[in-house]
Amino acid sequence: MRLTEIKNPSPPVATKSVREGGFTLIELLVVLATLAILTAVLLPALAGTKPNTPAHQCLNNERQLILGWQMYAADNNDLLPPNDYPFTTPYWTYPNKIWLKNWVVGTMEQPLDSSTRFGALELTDPNTLLSPYATNSSVYHCPADNYIDPFSHVVHPRSYSMNSAVGTIWWSYYNFGPPLGSPVQGGWLPGAAYNASQITWLTYGKMSSVTRPGTANTFVFTDENSYTINDGCFDAAAVAAPGQTYLIDYPSGNHGAAGVLAFADGHVIVHHWQDSRTYTPVAAQLGSGSTTSTLQSPDDPDCFYLAPLTSARR
């Protein structure tokens, strides 16, 4: 019997369950759109800066501080850290250190606090309430801040201060009676001499209270001028009207006549000051800021910029 030759049929073409490598046009467009969005978000903060420049490093420092500030509020039932340190009180020789808890302890007005050894230690001290979130003491120093203090004979270990309208009371509780956790009193916000009973301008003790001018328009940190920096509070006037522009504490102009501002929503910018008076306090203000009600810089355009970012009318 003749065997019939049977040819093996061609194997069926397998259907690919997984497509071969590569991207579709739609996927590429999605990637490009994502990159464009990230660029749009980052460019305003990094405008005018290059990696590894002092301005870029200062941006990163304030970004870490504002993140720590936000994390502190999240860990403490929305309560913001204290911001009422007594600006002439040296931390290391004070007997009741528990009274001095603050977002940062110490004052650059005192040689011991502004010294290399003790200044670095106070930035990681447990009473510095942001220290668990910003663990490296170098985060508190702007790399462009090279001013040599004539009393401690070293560069200040801290360059940053917090908006005087932002934060809660700690020191004042032990000395004047307002409840712990109360909002700071914002005595310099009217622009005149200290007035603990000011009721014109909002102060913010909780993250949820930063509704006007809003988290995106309320600055929290800035690099302060080496002449006026003392405690961790940046006293800024919220009032700005023709003939009424006040500078109590002065911002830094260390970045080519510019300073860095960190806002409550987390974004950080380099801002160029328009008037040299803004960042050039007189030598007599070393460590003390302005302690008079004198108009420091009438019609300073930078005050018109900064005032509405400081607070809002009640």
Relative strand content? 5-15%
| E-strand count | 7
C-alpha end-to-end distance:
110 Å
| Share of helix, binned | 10-25%
Choose one word for the global shape: globular
Rg, nearest Å:
27 Å
Mean pLDDT equals 86
How many distinct domains? 1
- Unreliable sequence segments: 1-9, 12-19
Strand order of the largest sheet: 3-1-2-6-7
Order of helices and strands: HHHEHEEEEEEH
Largest sheet: 5 strands, mixed
List the total number of helices.
5
Q: Which class best fits the helix and strand makeup? A: alpha+beta
Model description:
Strand 4 and strand 5 (244-247) form a beta hairpin. The chain contains 5 helices and 7 strands; from the N terminus they run H-H-H-E-H-E-E-E-E-E-E-H. The strands form 2 sheets. A 5-stranded mixed sheet has the order 3-1-2-6-7. 21% of the residues lie in helices and 10% in strands. The protein has one domain (52-310). 42% of the residues are buried. It has helices spanning 25-46, 54-75, 116-123, 171-175, 301-310, and strands at residues 160-163, 219-223, 233-234, 236-241, 244-247, 258-263, 268-272. By secondary structure, the protein is of the alpha+beta class.
Essential attributes:
314 residues; disordered N terminus; alpha+beta; 5 helices; five-stranded mixed sheet
